[in-house]
Amino acid sequence: MTTVRYCVNGKLVAGVSPTNRGFAYGDGIFRTMRLLDGELVDWPLHYQTLVADCSKIQMVCPSAEFLMQEFKYFMASAEANTRLASVIKIIITRGEGARGYAPPAICEPTRVFVQSPMPVYPSEIYTQGVALYTCQTRLAYQPVLAGIKHLNRLENVLARAELKDPRFFDGLLLDYDNQVIEAVSGNLFIRKADTVFTPALDSCGVAGVMRQKILDWYKTQGQAVIVAPIDKAALLDADAVVVVNSVYGILQVSQIDEQRLATDDWAGQLRLRLNYGVSADA
Amino acid sequence: MTTVRYCVNGKLVAGVSPTNRGFAYGDGIFRTMRLLDGELVDWPLHYQTLVADCSKIQMVCPSAEFLMQEFKYFMASAEANTRLASVIKIIITRGEGARGYAPPAICEPTRVFVQSPMPVYPSEIYTQGVALYTCQTRLAYQPVLAGIKHLNRLENVLARAELKDPRFFDGLLLDYDNQVIEAVSGNLFIRKADTVFTPALDSCGVAGVMRQKILDWYKTQGQAVIVAPIDKAALLDADAVVVVNSVYGILQVSQIDEQRLATDDWAGQLRLRLNYGVSADA
């Protein structure tokens, strides 16, 4: 599959209305996940996060049953081979609205599914790790929206637009207090000696499902992960850093700007333990 | 006219693709203006602002000629009476994109025109002024996006959703430093003795065209308007406060939360001087 397909409110239509609040104001949320052998990988965790994010912006998430019904309808028209491995993005917006910011008294959330080809990553990102550049664009302090994967993503767009050097896989995002928050398209974990850290996301950033999955896994191991502010010096001084998201999975960070980082096989071990293989295997 | 009409990329189509970057990331800008006797009111100023805002997020704005050509096509299908008075919203996005935040190397901006009925405001808002409530939602410090009327408007949505009491016309938005920035849907001007102030918008907020029009008019009068941080105490202590946007025009603020403000006929004088009448006359 080279094309992108989509489905809006359970129909294979040409698009969403420009009066949809998702388009007009970015008034909605989304999640991106792998489709593998016809199943959405980690769907229960993705759904739980959709519900939580909807709630944070005062929307009611459609039921899992309803979303799965629309998803099955959507996939019924998919080419068989695309069900083996592709990427599914689910977008839920506050629905249609009149002019003006006020949310309508009665909203029917808009559900959008987008199916895209699974990206073909160079195998080196799994074997040798990836380099991140430090973005000039900073994330704003906005606790009301922090952690939510909402549709207001201009900061990410501008940060990602800074990347011109093909040696770099993604950007490193700091806030205005010089704290490390995340990558433009992923979350970060840091290991120093036997302690694992991940940046706190209570003032900005997106709390990804792969981040949650790793937090949950460490919990089952009885090992605490420290969720705290992390500055760049701590990142550069770490024994290992990984960057994670639900599409590429878990990657070692081998370099930040021009500085090489300490590396080991932490990313590979986590992929194995979490059974979240490289995308070529997926 | 009770319905809303729209036009996407010069066609009367059903919608925009969910892969449009305006929908996916709020990656675009917009302006709302009056249509009066078939003409877009203050179009040169609106166009100049569209160009400036596009540039700030590294987009190239289509030419005024091109936009006007699409607008004329759109209006050719409008009912004659709707050309006398309605509201036109122009949205320009970075266009279609693949999955991922990176702006495509080559973008064709998407142009959307939306025509809505002119709101019917109660005449009292022009004669007696309006009340504002102070929003709990604060605007984030983000100088990179400050002033731009971009499509990332969740702060405005959440702030406007706080309004439950029909006595209030709009919300008053502060930043996290307790500075007064704007109304949810308009800009503010304050007069103390003979001095006019308007909040600085270099850390957050939207620099509206009506705000610019008023700044320009005071300049032609040889009177400086002080653009500076303004706290709420200064607002409450002002001799007069007006709230302005391109749809309702210029309104006196007669009350903030439960506190009455000093009022005079500043709003009415400005409407007269700027030839920007009440919407019922427009």
Can you put this structure into words, describing what you see?
Two copies of one chain form a homodimer. Chain A has two domains: about 5-115, Aminotransferase class 4, branched-chain amino acid transferase, N-terminal domain (D-amino Acid Aminotransferase, Chain A, domain 1, 2-Layer Sandwich), CATH 3.30.470; about 125-275, Alpha-Beta Barrel (D-amino Acid Aminotransferase, Chain A, domain 2), CATH 3.20.10.10. Chain A is α+β, with helices and mostly antiparallel strands. In chain A, helix 5 (about 155-160) links the parallel strand 6 and strand 7. In chain A, about 25% of the residues lie in helices and about 30% in strands. In chain A, the strands form two sheets. In chain A, strands 6, 7, 8, 9, 10, 11, 12, 13, 14 and 15 form a ten-stranded mixed sheet that branches. A five-stranded antiparallel sheet of chain A has the order 1-5-4-2-3. The relative contact order of chain A is 0.15. The radius of gyration of chain A is 19 Å and the shape is globular. At the A-B interface, helix 1, strand 4, strand 5 and helix 5 of A face helix 1, strand 4, strand 5 and helix 5 of B.
Write the layout of secondary structure elements.
Two copies of one chain form a homodimer.
Chain A: E1 5-8, H1 21-25, E2 28-36, E3 39-40, H2 43-56, H3 64-76, E4 85-93, E5 110-117, H4 124-127, E6 130-134, H5 154-161, E7 170-174, E8 179-183, E9 187-192, E10 195-199, H6 209-220, E11 225-228, E12 230-231, H7 232-236, E13 240-245, E14 249-256, E15 259-260, H8 266-273
Parallel strand pairs in A: 6-7, 6-14, 10-11
Antiparallel strand pairs in A: 1-5, 2-3, 2-4, 4-5, 7-8, 8-12, 9-10, 9-13, 13-14, 14-15
Catalytic activity (chains A, B): 4-amino-4-deoxychorismate = 4-aminobenzoate + pyruvate + H(+)
Keywords (chains A, B): Folate biosynthesis, Lyase, Pyridoxal phosphate
Protein name (chains A, B): aminodeoxychorismate lyase
